[in-house]
Backbone:
């Protein structure tokens, strides 16, 4: 009786987790919508994000207001997400390349601070990695991540308006070209 009481719910959770993870891994790389980007991310969600404060993996708070006036590349990710891990080395390179041109990369993870701390130590990411926890998925959906997949990258111009919203791995060349265009006067 006790075994049945706990085994079936545990099995359901495990199967759900596998299906949820598989959905992230098989998503095609594509822009989230054919609608204009301004319609993809709700104004309320953008305001929530830009007024939010998240801790990094060492518990230090970071407010998005500190990056006001910069082009923001905001990447929602998780340590267990293979496409997320594939992006991070070239995100670091491009972050360093465009740092002097007013571009700020920020990673927001669904993981715990300890998991992100270990990941950061092993991979040497050059931009802030913040902890959003599992609830950050709901915010990413309001920002245009209609499939609730990872990675999800949102690029905002200097005025906080969306330039790109992408569920799935963002190719390095596309990101580099977009930022070149956005930083050219």
Residues:
């Amino acid at each position: 009786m006790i075994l049945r009481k706990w085994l079936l719910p545990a099995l359901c959770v495990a199967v759900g987790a596998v299906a949820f993870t598989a959905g992230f891994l098989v998503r095609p790389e594509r822009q989230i919508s054919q609608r204009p980007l301004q319609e993809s991310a709700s104004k309320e969600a953008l305001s929530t994000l830009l007024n939010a404060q998240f801790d990094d993996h060492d518990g230090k708070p970071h407010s998005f207001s500190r990056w006001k006036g910069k082009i923001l590349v905001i990447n929602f990710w998780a340590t267990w997400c293979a496409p997320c891990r594939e992006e991070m080395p070239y995100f670091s390179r491009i972050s360093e390349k465009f740092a002097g041109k007013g571009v700020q990369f920020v990673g927001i993870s669904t993981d715990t601070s300890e998991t992100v701390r270990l990941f950061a130590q092993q991979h040497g990411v050059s931009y802030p990695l913040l902890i959003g926890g599992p609830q950050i998925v709901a915010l990413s959906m309001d920002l245009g991540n209609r499939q609730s997949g990872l990675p999800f990258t949102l690029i905002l111009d200097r005025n906080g308006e969306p330039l790109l919203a992408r569920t799935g791995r963002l190719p390095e060349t596309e990101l580099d070209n977009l930022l070149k265009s956005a930083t050219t006067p």
Observations:
- The chain has seven helices and eight strands.
- Helices lie at 2-25, 37-40, 43-50, 82-98, 113-123, 136-142, 172-183.
- Strands lie at 30-31, 53-56, 61-63, 71-77, 103-109, 129-131, 152-156, 162-167.
